[in-house]
Amino acid sequence: MNPDDLQKLTTRMMPFGKYEGRLIADLPGPYLAWFARQGFPQGEIGRLLALMHEIDHNGLNALLEPLRASSQRNE
Q1: DSSP readout, the chain?
Q2: Whole-number pLDDT of residue 67
Q3: Torsion, Cα of 65, 51, 71, 23 (10° steps)
Q4: Which of 65, 56, 5, 6 is nearest to 29 (CA)?
Q5: Mean pLDDT score of the chain, rounded to an integer?
Q6: Residue pLDDT, tens place only, 47-74
Q7: Are the C-beta atoms of residues 30 and 17 closer than 8 Å to each other?
Q8: Predicted TM-score of the model (pTM)
Q9: CA 8 – CA 50 distance, rounded (Å)
Q10: What is the pLDDT at residue 68?
Q11: How far apart are CA 26 and CA 9, in angstroms?
Q12: For the chain, N or C: smaller number of CB within 10 Å?
């Protein structure tokens, strides 16, 4: 995992699908689980979705809160 990937979860938008335009960190767990079952897309977006699925599945979403706060201060 690239350390910058955690920050990307709180700043990158989902580029396609049902939740297009939503932050990857805000995607619902069942949607992430669907990708886990069907297969994640290739490239960076797939890597980020897989990482977010692991975070969500293990109940670690609170770890992203400091990064969210940091992103909001930089806007």
Answers
A1: --THHHHHHTTPBP-SSTTTTSBGGGS-HHHHHHHHHH-PPSHHHHHHHHHHHHHHHTT-GGGGHHHHHHHHHT-
A2: 86
A3: -100
A4: 56
A5: 92
A6: 999 999 999 999 999 989 988 877 666 6
A7: no
A8: 0.89
A9: 13
A10: 82
A11: 9
A12: C
Which residue, 55, 65, 49, 56, is CA-closest to 14? 49
For residue 51, the one-letter residue type is L
CB 56 within 8 A of CB 32: yes
User: What letter represents residue 67's amino acid?
Assistant: L
Tell me the two tokens of residue 59. 């109940």
Q: Identify the residue with better confidence: 75 or 65.
A: 65
